[in-house]
Design goal:
Tumour Suppressor Smad4, binds adenosine-5'-triphosphate, 31% helix, PH-domain like, alpha+beta, Rossmann fold, single chain, 3 domains
Amino acid sequence: MHARTRPARRLLTACPSRLRRADEAMCCLHGDKTPEIHRKPARRGDFGWLISLLHVHLPLCLSEREIDLFVLVESVNMSESEKELGEQRDSTKKKKKKKKKETPSGKTKKKQQQGERREQEVVQREQVEEEHSDSVVLRGIFKLGKKSHDVLLTRTRLTWTPITPETPTTGEACPPQPGVLLLRDVYAVKVKRRRSAGQESGGAVLGVALFCCRRRGRRLEQDTLQLHNASAEHTHTWYNTLKELLTAFSRPRYLKVFINPSSYKKESVHIYREHVAPLFKMADVRTDITVTERKGHALSVMKECKLDEYDGVVCVGGDGSVAELCHALVLRAQLDADSPEKPVRPVLPLGIIPAGSTDVVSCSVHGVRDPVTAALHIVLGHKQQVDMCSFSSLGQLVCFGFSAMFGFGGQSLARAEKKRWMPTSRRREYALVKTLARLRPEDCQLSFLPAKTSTRNLSEHRDNQDLDRGPEETWTTNQGLYLNISIMSIPCLSPHAPRGLAPNTSLANGSAALIAVGNTSRSEFIKHMKRYSSSSEPFSFSFVDTHAVSAVRIRPRSLVGWTEEEEESEEEEGESRPTPIIQSEGAAFPWNIDGELVEIANEVLVRYDDKKNLRNIIIINILIDGVLQSETGTSLMIHLISN
Ligand SMILES: Nc1ncnc2c1ncn2[C@@H]1O[C@H](COP(=O)(O)OP(=O)(O)OP(=O)(O)O)[C@@H](O)[C@H]1O
């Protein structure tokens, strides 16, 4: 294979029919009049079709924009907020009971309302007292802003109420609402001192500062609560107690950090220095930093380093770097456990600081693409289980990852990778348009094991369908033409696909989403893809099947893999070229695995009339055993096999 150097436009103009198709694809993308072009059905022996089929590709913009880790966020927060909700519900029930008992009957409505309000206030105060009286660790007076407050500290929260002088009217007025800060949101506590410019130590004590996170939707922001009290003794008592209480939370103290300086706009180092390092310093988290020098550097460091020294690993980069580190963590766990085949749960969690172009994993896990949110999740010790896949070929492990695309997804990425010299956005647009212009379905056998849990839209696929009933597992097999096949163990959210590329799967549900896009017209395919970025349902097309799966096997029926030489010869000779018999030694099918191009080589000498000798198979297995930081988590394996 070799990269062509001709400019994209020249390539497209090389053949008028190709230019027409590119323009049609562009029209569809930009919402202009959509030309209807239907593909001819696959014919055996039509090698020209086969060649162009291999040039089909997937929306790079989608595949690349798609996305544990020290993460999550969602389940941690959800379970906690559910608890809080439960508590609120209980207290509301209590309130209602008390109200029923205490409200006197036969009074006027106004008096009743006043009485009820007072009772509510009493209940609220009692509730706050109740919640904290048992476990009050400290109580004191601090100034918050300019007002003095009565501050209560329990093992889980800090509560402050303004101290207001009693007046005859205060009974009628609404009492001040207490402020609350949960200690689980506090990542650092410091003594505040008055220092003159240039003074580095000492200084008069002013009080205690608590550094915490504030939630704004899915985003976490830094916040500070200042408790002012000039008494050094009082302040130190509070400081020491707060420090001790914070040690009860399981948080990292020493992290191995990998920074990929070449990610996207080469801003990773800057992002780390500006947004992450200060937070780590504030939270007293020590770091051991490696700035990667090449692809595979992080993996080789991870294979050698002493993991028991660290509390976690942090990746500053894009999806490719995340995938490399996830792969390294799972591989290392397997090596350490001397378990070459069965995935073993890694000892360390992985923190992801997004610095790539799409950051699908970070978006899926954090809900937003924000380095500060990610860093706060790390220092606060939030953890999330995430399903992972293993991809293997010929029974050999290729890599571990979160998502894989075959067909349009793999081909578009392969096409874009060959134009690395182009700026990122131009390269993507070029690959997308060119692949759409050559949209061809892949003829393959798709087998999958439905997940034991719920499946969605298990519509019958056209063509042949048969069931291989093994002793324990029931494989569903479809033979047909597919424009794209995606397998995703996470929802793959990104700014370009806000609901995700696989909205029906979650981070750790023990299954993967299989999205099989059958053969259709270009305009329908583009319509389907465009729905990922809108609020419309992208799967409500007859040619799209979605399944919750635990294993997938894909066998392309093509004789040859996708090679640059073949593409070039297609360009030169046009599509009407007669089908040659090709020996495809070294040819490979491009797969898009977590935004990285993985080409699976065919090791068999192939002849056109000996189709059965060449097969590529992908199997995804889900092991209900947990891969990342979880007692009950799940892991997902994909084996990519060719024979
Ligand atoms: N110093 C380096 N030079 C070149 N490549 C590197 C270097 N360090 C790491 N890599 C590799 O670069 C690949 C891409 O990195 P990454 O995904 O972080 O960036 P990106 O492709 O710009 O981001 P995204 O995947 O979000 O588009 C990874 O496979 C990683 O192993």
